[in-house]
User: Which sequence fits this backbone?
């Protein structure tokens, strides 16, 4: 009769057998190639287990990299859009400056006029009325926006600010039927008035003489005569010119250069507040610095007028001499002529006679 519970080898014997077997396998694996097929087959099984155990970490790294890279790409994209818009705005002003003639010598001779202060704004709404062309931007009175301030996109002028709110503004587009802007043909300087037609893809030049030198394809730029829009910015391109011998005026239609229905990021232009004389002086200084190979000087918005300090020094210098005080005309002379060095010695003989 067999016992109910059979007794096997003890734990020590089992451990010793396993140790001997392990040593034997290591020796065989190191000395011979008998176990190479077995190792290759086991590597296939272990590779799947490695992949499964490493799956959570790889998923976490993938999700983290996706969210991180997306945030960085969005930020970089916004930065590049802003820089691109600024560069395109400067390029269109530079192109207009290089094509102007003697009638715009102030724009041609002054490199400082290109560096007008601008601020980027974003379109956040549109007027639902189909008979008015107005948009809303995210810059308002708190941001320094003023009524009548020009607004342009990367291609040309779009309109002007007509209503101010603390944090937003309403812009009237060029194509509105109530809007007009003085323009000139960039090719020959012919002046005209471009008015909106209610069509976002069309402007009309009114009261243009039938014999006027204007052709299809001419670029219309702002003339600056209305003191509202800066001169030299693209406005429209002539699309159609109809001459009628029985009418005194020609029918001229143009297409706005700005993408009125597609632009989202806009530029608010802050015009220069300097007088024409100050702008001419600053332009001469900038041109001289450019000829000398020096960097152009930084011109502030308003240049203070120089005050001659010689008028305040002359009375103090001649105060001891009574004869000099009795001649106020010498005080009004400019500094080079108002430095009479001979008057104090002239007072010395007078005092000498009194002592004698």
Assistant:
């Amino acid at each position: 009769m067999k016992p109910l519970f059979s007794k096997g080898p003890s734990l020590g014997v089992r451990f010793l057998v396993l140790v001997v077997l392990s040593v034997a396998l290591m020796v065989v694996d190191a000395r011979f190639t008998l176990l190479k097929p077995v190792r290759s087959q086991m590597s296939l099984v272990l590779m799947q287990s490695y992949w499964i155990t490493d799956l959570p970490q790889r998923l976490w790294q993938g999700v983290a990299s996706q969210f991180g890279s997306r945030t960085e790409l969005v930020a970089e994209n916004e930065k590049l859009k802003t820089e691109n818009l600024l560069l395109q705005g400067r390029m269109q002003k530079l192109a207009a400056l290089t094509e102007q003639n003697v009638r715009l010598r102030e724009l041609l001779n002054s490199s400082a006029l290109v560096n007008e202060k601008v601020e980027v704004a974003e379109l956040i709404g549109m007027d639902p009325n189909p008979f008015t062309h107005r948009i809303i931007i995210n810059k308002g009175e708190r941001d320094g926006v003023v009524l009548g301030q020009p607004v342009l996109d990367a291609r040309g002028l779009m309109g002007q600010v007509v209503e101010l709110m603390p944090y937003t503004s309403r812009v009237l587009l060029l194509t509105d039927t109530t809007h007009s802007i003085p323009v000139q043909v960039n090719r020959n300087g012919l002046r005209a008035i471009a008015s909106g037609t209610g069509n976002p893809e069309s402007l009309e030049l009114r009261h243009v003489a039938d014999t006027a030198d204007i052709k299809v394809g001419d670029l219309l730029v702002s003339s600056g005569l209305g003191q509202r829009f800066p001169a030299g910015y693209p406005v429209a391109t002539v699309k159609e010119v109809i001459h009628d011998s029985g009418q005194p005026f020609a029918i001229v239609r143009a297409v706005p250069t700005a993408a009125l229905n597609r632009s989202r990021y806009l530029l608010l232009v802050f015009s220069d507040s300097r007088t024409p004389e100050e702008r001419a002086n600053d332009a001469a200084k900038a041109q001289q610095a450019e000829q000398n190979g020096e960097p152009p000087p930084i011109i502030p918005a308003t240049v203070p007028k120089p005050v001659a300090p010689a008028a305040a020094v002359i009375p103090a210098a001649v105060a001891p001499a009574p004869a000099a005080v009795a001649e106020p005309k010498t005080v009004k002379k400019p500094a080079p002529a108002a430095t009479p060095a001979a008057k104090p010695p002239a007072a010395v003989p007078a005092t000498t006679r009194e002592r004698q």
User: Anything to note?
Assistant: The helical segments are 11-31, 36-98, 105-109, 276-291, 310-318, 322-325, 329-332, 343-355. The longest strand covers residues 117-126.
